[in-house]
Amino acid sequence: MIFLLKNDPRAPFPAVKFAEQEPNGLLAVGGDLSPERLVNAYRHGVFPWYSDNEPILWWSPDPRTVLYPERVKISRSLGKTLRKEKFHVTLDTAFSEVIQACAEPQPKSPGTWLMPEMKVAYAELHDQGVAHSVEVWQEEQLVGGLRRLSR
């Protein structure tokens, strides 16, 4: 069952157990991208993912990738690469650049998942200290990164 969200960001999300199996994880449609709704969504394992000229679609696929930094195991080959000091990692030093890079279409995908209004919403969350970026640099060039939410 796919739920229709109202424009009240405080309204609770449906339980993720109601997410569709096909397409995997589709839970709801509609609502808005207010910081309050995004925090509420991520807190419950739900995230927005939609294309241009579509309504906002809210997903909670099973399984879902969640990284717990304290549980990350670095492989031997990655450890060797990191010890060569070719790269350095920073936190929250290039948030907008990471978001922009994430929004760039990939070679095998014609569009982007990070719509302009989503970039604005993540920037608001960053200003509130909720959204963060991890940047990977090779010399002075940004070569990788990710965004995360915390609270």
UniProtKB/TrEMBL annotation:
Keyword Transferase: yes
Gene Ontology biological-process entries: protein catabolic process
Keyword annotations: Acyltransferase, Cytoplasm, Transferase
GO molecular function term, any single one: leucyl-tRNA--protein transferase activity
Enzyme Commission designation: 2.3.2.6
Reactions catalysed: N-terminal L-arginyl-[protein] + L-leucyl-tRNA(Leu) = N-terminal L-leucyl-L-arginyl-[protein] + tRNA(Leu) + H(+); L-phenylalanyl-tRNA(Phe) + an N-terminal L-alpha-aminoacyl-[protein] = an N-terminal L-phenylalanyl-L-alpha-aminoacyl-[protein] + tRNA(Phe); N-terminal L-lysyl-[protein] + L-leucyl-tRNA(Leu) = N-terminal L-leucyl-L-lysyl-[protein] + tRNA(Leu) + H(+)
InterPro entries reported for this sequence: Acyl_CoA_acyltransferase (IPR016181), Leu/Phe-tRNA_Trfase (IPR004616), Leu/Phe-tRNA_Trfase_C (IPR042203), Leu/Phe-tRNA_Trfase_N (IPR042221)
Localization: Cytoplasm
An annotated GO cellular component: cytoplasm
Gene3D superfamilies membership: Leucyl/phenylalanyl-tRNA-protein transferase, C-terminal domain, Leucyl/phenylalanyl-tRNA-protein transferase, N-terminal domain
Annotated function: Functions in the N-end rule pathway of protein degradation where it conjugates Leu, Phe and, less efficiently, Met from aminoacyl-tRNAs to the N-termini of proteins containing an N-terminal arginine or lysine.
Family as reported in the entry's similarity comment: Belongs to the L/F-transferase family.
Protein name: Leucyl/phenylalanyl-tRNA--protein transferase
Biological source species: endosymbiont of Lamellibrachia luymesi
